[in-house]
Specification:
mainly alpha, binds zinc ion
């Protein structure tokens, strides 16, 4: 439904600015993207049930408060909620959501009380990492730059393709091909553009996955550092956390490196657990990347 409206809008832009339509489409994409990110904390509560986390998990509240204090996210205990996710998923999650007055901590009921508290603290530490390190704005900026070049290149390639093959494929009428300067001003050229963009996003996917894996790794490091000193064995807790994640999401315990490179937006559970097991910047009195101790 929304997709149809977006398509119509894009088609209108192509008609309106036949030569620089890709720039127009890019400009329209930006606020849509930002809206998607900022609206979700308001949409999410409409479809889910919450209760105060302290109602049945007072101990966990106290432990998460320690992580909150160490990470400086400044969220009071009465802004921690248990979300009923068990009807929809087996997954594990504990994260910061919303902005300003709506800022809160959400722990899924698949997680609190189902996995050990130190693992919940680690999952929450990882998610806090995304929040503290501004991964969402950074990802949006990266996407903006990436889409700019994707649209520009796609439009160029689509124009070239429509000119060369349009008549043969029956996409352009003879009059269309005469106006070689603006081949995509026409409804028909739009089909070529869609084709080219879907082709290009195939190539873009592994690139954006590589970005995402970089941020996930950074959040893993942050999460491990965030619980250091709060749990008895930082490395062991993190490894247990990744094993629990792998089981909850039924992830392939040993994916081929190519599949991981091409399709995974997180490093595989195996890669993450191997890193966690040996990550110990505190030995010999050192400290990690994000915390002074
Ligand atoms: Zn993450």
């Amino acid at each position: 439904m929304l997709g149809t409206w977006v398509m119509l809008l894009f088609q209108w832009i192509v008609k309106k600015w036949p030569r620089r339509y890709w720039l127009g489409i890019w400009l329209v994409t930006m606020p849509l993207m930002v809206l998607g990110v900022f609206v979700s904390p308001w949409i999410e509560p409409l479809f889910n049930k919450y209760e105060p986390l302290s109602k049945n998990h007072a101990g966990l509240v106290a432990e998460l408060e320690q992580v909150v204090e160490r990470t400086g996210t400044n969220i009071p205990a009465d802004r921690m909620f248990l979300m009923k996710a068990s009807e929809k998923t087996n997954g594990l999650n504990a994260y910061v959501s919303g902005l300003g007055a709506t800022k809160r901590i959400v722990v899924w009921d698949t997680t609190a009380g189902r996995v050990p508290d130190d693992v919940v603290m680690f999952v929450f530490g990882h998610e806090s990492g995304h929040y503290v390190l501004n991964h969402i704005p950074k990802e949006m900026a990266g996407m903006a730059v990436g889409l700019f070049f994707l649209y520009w290149a796609s439009a160029g390639f689509a124009g070239w393709l429509a000119q060369r093959k349009g008549a043969k494929w029956g996409l352009l009428t003879p009059e269309d091909s005469v106006e070689a300067s603006a081949p995509l001003a026409h409804r028909t050229g739009f089909v070529v553009l869609l084709f080219v963009v879907s082709l290009a996003s195939l190539i873009v996917e592994p690139a954006s996955n590589a970005f995402s894996r970089h941020f996930e790794h950074e959040a893993d490091v942050y999460g491990q550092e965030a619980i250091h000193g709060l749990v008895p064995d930082t490395q062991k807790t993190a490894v247990n956390g990744f094993n629990a994640l792998g089981e909850a999401y039924l992830e392939d315990p040993n994916p081929s490196p190519f599949i991981e490179f091409w399709e995974y937006n997180h490093p595989s559970v195996k890669t993450r657990a191997e890193f966690a097991a040996q990550y110990n910047p505190w030995k010999n009195g050192g400290h990690g990347r994000f915390f002074a101790q």
